[in-house]
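Just scan my protein:

——
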Amino acid sequence: MLQVCLNGPRTAADSGAVPMSPAALAEAARRAVAAGAEDVHVHPKTPCGRDSLSPSVVGPALEAIKAVVDVPVGVTTGAWAEPDQPDPSDGPGRSPDRRVERVRSWTVLPDHASVNWHEEGAEALAGALLERGIGVEAGLWSGTPGPGRFLRSPLAPRVLRVLAEITDTDAGSAPATARALLTEVAGGAHGRPVLLHGWDGGAWPVLRLAVELGLDTRIGIEDTLLLPDGRPAADNAQLIAAALAPGG
């Protein structure tokens, strides 16, 4: 399975190729699916370009995308998209409950949502998604406590898939980092599909490794702004086409 990651936390300041509005996201998704993408991952954004989990932001983005594609569509639940609110009972700390409240308030539901297992509150957040019938993509970032926490989680057997996410952006070392993460989670994935991907300099080497290993993978403006030959990508569809090209 090849997923397209339309925008991520990037903004127009990063590249003019980053889709922001519901209409732009829908057109980007339509073109990417036409190019061969089989799944969509999106970060719904406020008009000022900030990732958000608000139902007034998530709903319009999902409605626009789902109106033009017939593949599953998922969203982020990253902690940066909903800064946790102060909880007086916890003193100066911050509570992760805000993201759970947001998920429970959604009026338009995604097919799946990614949960970063290294973030505080991941377990409660995944539980809230499952309660609403939303598939959970377990985001396991290399170099974080996430993989270990996931392997100990009672929810691990219930996730839709494992996202093996390689934070090593060095093209030379990223594949080795990927293999190490895959070895770490191999015994605790409970037979769930694994989607392997990298970021920036590691995006294309890790994608090639995923293809070599027969794993699901993804590509898109969130993961890289560049084509394999180093040229700037015009859009997500061009990245999908490059990934599907022989030797991509």
Q: What stands out?
A: Confidence is low (pLDDT under 50) at residues 86-94. The longest helix spans residues 22-35. The chain is about 35% helix and 15% strand.
